[in-house]
Amino acid sequence: MASASLTRFEGIFPTLADDIKKQCIEQYGLPVRVWQWFEKSLSHNAIGGKCNRGLSVIDTARLLLGRDLAPDEYFHTATLGWMIELLQAMMLVLDDIMDASSTRRGRPCWYLVPDVGMIAVNDAPMLESAIYLLLKKHFRGHPAYVDMLELFHEVSFRIELGQTYDMLVAPQDSVTVNFAAFNQATYNQIVAYKTAYYSFHLPVALAMLYCGCASARNLEQAERILVAMGTYFQVQDDYLDNFADPTVLGKVGTDIVDGKCSWLAVQALERCNAEQRLVLEENYGRKGDGYERRIKALYDELKLKEVYIQYEDAKVAEVRQMIHEVDESEGLKKSVFTEFLSKIYKRNK
């Protein structure tokens, strides 16, 4: 059984875009120029990523069924995967605006594309709304349709709550960073809501629902492992934001300038002396020449690269132990989690 290929997965998207087009033009009577704008947004924001979340739905279903997928099964799981990519696209459009980011996937952020600007605020929920259009068209007759619908709504709400928590802890218009709110417990909560549930739990839960093995026991086991794995993934993301080559990462890191409650900032606060804390307080979250450079130098001084390596080794060992203890008696497979872990372990972008 081969893992899903990105090329084949991307080949499904034009069919789904056509479904959305028909709904907009034939059923709603939408002017063509409005559809063309939406189509441009779909292309820019949904296409061009690694699509790990979307591909994971296909791979999870294949592993749960223990065989290669039939053509209709592939189409259905790929469609569910693209719905997650649309949710991701919605989130990134808004996240880039709130973070004042400049690039995404090696291209200008959508709001910085000529003639877009703050129209992007309206384009983002349109991307999410397309999920429910596609879900109704292709899964209304599926036994788990309502569960899928509720899962998307629940995870979307979790993302929004996590984003709110993140922005309240590190408000963009604040003159000084409130380091009192920066701690591991707060970080873990933000990560669970903003990242773990939609990047890790959602693809697996959708595949379980599609394949008919979403028992309460299986969902509980999956959620516990995948939230832990999602936390590891976000720590990786925070690490790469500072230490990765932007040309490899596909974006310029902004966590320091934005004053984010990032894993690196939490670790720095736990390890710094009084003098080093003063460097944090005077430079973190400030825009202007030299501030970010001083924080990066402090991270090097505190040897946070080595701290991350130690964290990664310990966290991966913990996740592997959790996988080893999975009860497969109700159709869940350990291989679902080992394959997921293999995709993110030691990633560099």
Report on this model:
The chain has 349 residues and is an all-alpha fold. 71% of the residues lie in helices and 1% in strands. The chain contains 16 helices and 2 strands. The chain has a two-stranded antiparallel ribbon with strand order 1-2. Helix 2 packs across helix 6 and helix 7 runs antiparallel to helix 8 (184-211). The model has no long low-confidence stretch (mean pLDDT 93).
Features:
mainly alpha, about 350 residues, two-stranded antiparallel ribbon, 16 helices
Structural class: mainly alpha
Radius of gyration: 21 Å
Rounded mean pLDDT is: 93
End-to-end distance, in Å?
26 Å
The largest beta-sheet arranges its strands as 1-2
H-E order = HHHHHEEHHHHHHHHHHH
The total beta strand count reads 2
Low-confidence parts, pLDDT < 50 over ≥5 residues? none
Number of helices: 16
Q: Helicity range of the residues?
A: over 70%
Shape: globular
Protein topology:
Elements: H1 6-10, H2 13-27, H3 32-46, H4 52-65, H5 71-99, E1 103-104, E2 107-108, H6 120-139, H7 145-169, H8 184-211, H9 216-243, H10 246-249, H11 255-258, H12 263-271, H13 274-283, H14 291-301, H15 304-324, H16 334-344
Write a compact overview of the structure shown.
It is built from 16 helices and two strands. It has 349 residues and is mainly α.
